[in-house]
Amino acid sequence: MPAARHLAALPVLALVANAFTWGVSWWPLRQLQGVGLHPLWSTALIFALATLLIALRHGAAFGELRRTPGLWVVLLASGATNACFNWAVASGDVVRVVLLFYLMPLWAVLLARLLLGERAGRVALLRVALALAGAAIVLWPAEGAGLPLPRTRAEALGLLGGATFALNNVMLRRQAASGAAARALAMFLGGMTVALLLALAGSAPWPPALAPGWVAGIAALSLAFLVGNLALQYGATRLPANVTAVVMITEVLFAAVSAFLLGASAASPALLAGGALIVLAALLAARG
Fold first, then answer.
1. Distance in angstroms (rounded) separating the CA atoms of residues 50 and 100
2. Within a domain: 234
3. Which helix (H) or strand (E) covers residue 83, if one does?
4. How many CA atoms lie within 13 A of 132 on its CB side?
5. Most buried among 54, 78, 102, 211, using CB within 10 Å?
6. Tally of CB atoms within 10 A around 204
């Protein structure tokens, strides 16, 4: 019996490991930025290495990706998600960014209606209302005047990243018949391509000269994200979707605790109250 419980806990632990990887990823990204490597370049290099590893193992996935237009949307959505999220957490208030990113229930309801034809029931509308209320509280100006809109580039990137992540998830549902390797390739190749294009377009200064420190950091992060993705696939294929969604919300906890401890975010009553509403909306979404 203990062995059976241990095996049953492995998928949950795998999901927690993935959530931990993303929840604390802001810290190594900031360390790389501190030595002159902009988060867009970091993102491009991290996902380039991961793409290479997938290509070596599943070369045929390129053909499926090329033949499947729906996966092109996944590529763009995943790329925009990673570029926005990594850039935002490396430069802004980590907890505010992560909470705004987790407005996904709002975007998911809208996109599911537009792309999948799913009608929004009363519970879905309640999720939207909670998410909007939480966002308004988080974004409300401290001085009390003005509209609750993003005030910094990092906040805008957090919002946009959450919207593109919702699009990514909706498109993955539409492309459920595609091979797992092709879907993973689309996501990693997108992470590399979008960040690279943004960096080359002038959004980031040119990378510093090669140095063992930041090269090792990129390799370690790439491995961490690749393992995290494999852990996500392992856990998500062995647990109900609602359980997966609930466990993944622990990313907010990891991000908040690490950011508060390391001084990358400042707690306030408004942030805590708005964050509670956003997390509640995400939990309701996880229940289905």
1. 27
2. yes
3. helix 69-91
4. 10
5. 78
6. 21
Residue 1 lies in a domain: no
Q: Torsion angle of alpha carbons 8, 169, 121, 155, nearest 10°?
A: 110
- The DSSP string of 190-244 is HHHHHHHHHIIIIISPPPPPP-HHHHHHHHHHHHHHHHHHHHHHHHHTTS-HHHH
Residue 4 falls inside a structural domain:
no
Angle at 212 between CA 17 and CA 215, to 5 degrees: 45
| 77 part of a folded domain | yes
Query: For residue 282, what are the contacts with CB-CB under 8 A and spacing of at least 6?
Result: 102, 104, 105, 245, 249
Determine if the pTM surpasses 0.90: no
Range of the domain at 84: 10-287
Query: How many whole angstroms separate alpha carbon 54 and alpha carbon 34?
Result: 29
Which of 189, 204, 195 has the alpha carbon at shortest distance from 44?
195
Instruction: Please state the domain count of the chain.
Output: 1
